[in-house]
Specification:
Layout: H1 4-15, E1 19-22, H2 30-44, E2 50-54, H3 55-76, E3 80-87, H4 91-103, E4 108-111, H5 117-131, E5 134-140, E6 153-155, E7 162-164, H6 165-175, E8 180-183, H7 188-198, E9 204-206, H8 216-222, E10 226-229, H9 231-234, H10 239-254
Parallel strand pairs: 1-2, 1-10, 2-3, 3-4, 4-5, 5-8, 8-9, 9-10
Antiparallel strand pairs: 6-7
Helix pairs in contact: 2-3, 4-5, 6-7, 8-10
């Protein structure tokens, strides 16, 4: 079986896009919400390489019913699927949660490195490896307050030096064999700095594009491999046109 890295790389190549659709739609009526999600996904599939779903959507639609259908729909179009679980608990709890998402068909899951390796994310990485699933680490979030945690200067437990937290997380992404590192498109300098640590071994996924002020072009120029885009696509009067425009902007920037 192919790994998650292989799967999303192939999808990106065949669809000529590095855009990950963050389908974070909200609606109190599950039936209406599902129809909106499925309709939006169907319309933009020619212009994206992956689908990312978040916890509010899963809670509203039910993991074992409509969410499974959305994951299958994405797979039918050759897209990779990512669950934005932000796992941040002890090992057995992280594993119990991840197993349900993997069983539902998700190809990768996002987790927080704050909990550490031993007794934190070790069992998750092991299970993901057995199943050819991916683990993407949350290295630096995209919102303004993210610098209070991910950007703070901390004492490196190995070297004893004061360093930015996100840089230590980037190193852990390499050491642990993560399949991706989330770094907000709103933090261009952090993308560029982490890129030097990741050495191309761990691809960068950048959320916060457009709606939060992040530039898709500047993000990829700084080193982002994939762009996570939500509101700029699904809140658009024409989601397909918006997805195509973002894809084309990035493709043009990378060839000039």
């Amino acid at each position: 079986m192919s790994t998650f890295k292989d799967k999303i790389k192939e999808a990106s190549k065949s669809l000529r896009s590095n855009v990950v659709l963050a389908l974070d739609l909200m609606d109190h009526d599950p039936a209406n919400l599902y129809e909106k999600c499925a309709g939006t996904l169907e319309s933009v599939t020619p212009y994206i390489c992956a689908l990312k779903l978040n916890r509010p959507l899963v809670l509203r639609l039910c993991l074992q019913e409509r969410i499974k259908n959305l994951v299958k729909l994405a797979h039918d179009h050759g897209l990779a699927t990512i669950m934005d679980a932000k796992l941040n608990d002890v090992a057995h709890t992280n594993l119990a949660i991840a197993l349900q998402y993997f069983d539902a068909g998700f190809d990768a899951i996002i987790a927080s490195p704050f909990v550490g390796w031993e007794g934190g994310l070790d069992s998750l990485f092991l299970e993901a490896s057995h199943r050819d699933k991916g683990v993407i680490l949350l290295v630096h979030m995209s919102h303004k307050g993210a610098t209070e945690g991910y950007g703070q200067t901390v004492i490196d437990p190995v070297t004893g030096e004061g360093r930015p937290q996100f840089m230590i997380f980037a190193e852990k992404a390499v050491a642990w064999g993560a399949d991706g590192a989330v770094i907000g498109a709103t933090h261009i300098e952090q993308i560029a700095a982490a890129r030097k640590v990741l050495h191309g071994k761990v691809p960068i996924y950048s959320p916060g594009v457009i709606a939060q002020g992040g530039s898709p072009v500047e993000a990829v120029k700084a080193g982002a491999d994939y762009l996570i885009v939500g509101r700029a696509i699904y809140d658009s009067p024409d989601p397909a046109a918006s997805a195509r425009s973002i894809r084309d902007q990035v493709s043009s920037a990378l060839t000039t």
